[in-house]
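Protein entry
_____________
===
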Amino acid sequence: MMNATHEFADDMPDAGAALRDRLQQHLSRNIGDVRAAFIDADAWNGLSTEAGPPIDVMVVPPQGERRFAYLCTFGSALHPLGADIYRKEGLCRRVEFVLAVPQGGDAPSDAAELDLGAQLLRQYAKIAHMQPITIERGETVAFAKEPEPLFEGANQVAVSFMPPRIPSDGFTTLKLDGGDIIEFVSPTPICREELALARRRGPARLADELFARGVTEMLAPAREPVVKAPARAGWASRLLQWLRGT
């Protein structure tokens, strides 16, 4: 578990500090002011040994009637994604990752939810630079053919990369002075049935279903799947598939 959040430190290189300021301004315009952050170097008690770039997680706390915190990574966009398809196409793809986390007013529970969301964001922000995965709408990441739940007691077993829906439309991209664009992406947790749909029908179909059913970047471990499990084929159908070699 992380420690409590820390105020921002000002010991980053100039490029990093400038980008941090741009991200904070972007969040302020669209969600609210960033008040604190989980810092990669110290918020994991100095025990962070994973490969990949340092990833901090900025926190916009609840305010007024907005009873959720909004979390955004900082550090991913300092490095373009290295997936083969982006290099082959000459694309400079920069992303930061976001999640919304419900906050009910109970301090220990709220802190645990923030910790859960921040760790999830940090994990996938690092994976994006450690493995040649594409970060595109509906693309899924699961760590096994039959993955375990992402969190204890959760219905979700994988994530699907989706555009954020809670802020206004203008939030999804941020243009930098040099012309590069940062895209904001949510590693949206998905259920086993939803992962199966992506594997059968492709990521675009899953993304369409999640969008149509109102799934957002709000962290909701108890969320039920929005698609049905595929029906099991009867013995005659399975025999026909075997005869056809499919």
Remarks:
- Residues 1-13 have pLDDT under 50 and may be disordered.
- Residues 107-130 form the longest helix (24 residues).
